[in-house]
Amino acid sequence: MPVYELYSKRKRRAERGGEPEVYQYDELPKHLRTQIRQILTAAIGSYYEYRDYEMSSVRNNNVAWEKLADILRRELGVDALAQTTTPYAEIMRFFEAADTDDALSVVELCARWVDRIMSEVESYKLQNIGATQGAKDALDELNYRFRDAGVGYQYESGEIIRVDSQFIHTEVVKTALTVLSDPRFRGAEEEFLEAHRHYRNGDAKEAITGANRAFESTMKAICDLKGWAYEEKARASNLIKVLKANRLFPDYLDASLDQLLATLASGLPKVRDNAGAHGQGAAPRSTPAYVAAYALHLSATNIVFLVDAALSETL
User: Above 50 in pLDDT, residue 254?
Assistant: First the structure.
């Protein structure tokens, strides 16, 4: 549905003087939870509790809410999410009271249903199940509501991922997920999403290691695509040499290419080697979250470059 710019929203933006709102990750405000509930209900369809004397002609999507509630009960290891009379009310009451991680789990599961199930329902059939909002519009609004509330999460490629800079996310991370959605890069896509999961959960070291795995898997996929030989256990620096030897990069880049190769060779792998991949010694080291963010963003940038270079001649 259309997003309306209310007076209060314009006033808050004016008071910030054009400064972007800083994202927070620890809390889903009450108004945001309400907006999310409204979006998911509109996109999946309503639930209707029949009386004994009623016919089944009421427009609803009871089956979807029953399946979603069953999945959540099983995964959370509970017999009931909340004491209510319907699966829909059970999910929403749990969502409203849950901590941030559990609430995001509900959002992710329901958004994935919208993305993968509701998006396949023909538009003329949506009204028969009480759905009043299309899948794409609902997911776009969901991400807008997160941004508007200053909460640093977005739904992308089937998962809720953490966002630090909206510009970097839109221009780098989302672009990387788009190019990795090609089935030929599925392994790299899974590793990149896994790295984001670690990052969201505060495990910076594993996020860095996962980012490097995605980077390496991308290069291996390119080699497989092109028929270029490489050692099975080759690391990033060795894989870069294979790509360079096979002239993946155009000759006319000259100094720019040297600079890029230096970034590829010493940037991400170096961060990974120093912060995430090897033993930490007698004294435990704490890896700052901003280092993990750098690794993820650098990985995403390099992945986009490499895939674009590889597919520019293949397509």
Answer: no
Query: Terminal CA-to-CA distance of the chain, rounded, Å?
Result: 37
Predicted pLDDT of residue 315: 46
pLDDT for res 20: 45
Q: Are 163 and 23 in contact (CB under 8 A)?
A: yes
Tell me the mean pLDDT in the region 234-253: 82
Token pair recorded at residue 202: 């505060």
Q: What share of the chain has pLDDT > 90, as a percent? A: 42
Map out the domains of the chain as residue ranges.
Answer: 20-163, 170-314
- Nearest CA to 67 out of 85, 90, 97 is that of 90
DSSP-derived letter for residue 80 is -
Give the list of residues 6+ apart from residue 80 with CB closer than 8 angstroms, or none.
73, 90
Contact 214, 299 (CB under 8 A): yes
Counts for the chain of helices (H) and strands (E), in that order: 15, 2
Any bridge partners for residue 161, and if so which? 154
Single out the residue of 110, 105, 64 nearest to residue 87, CA to CA.
64
Pick the CATH number of 170-314 from 2.40.128, 1.20.120, 2.20.110, 1.10.30: 1.20.120
pLDDT in tens, 133-181: 999 999 999 998 998 888 989 999 899 998 876 667 767 788 888 899 9
Pairing of strands 159-162, 153-156: antiparallel
Give the sign of the dihedral formed by CA 23, CA 24, CA 30, CA 35.
positive
Residue 285 belongs to what H/E stretch? none
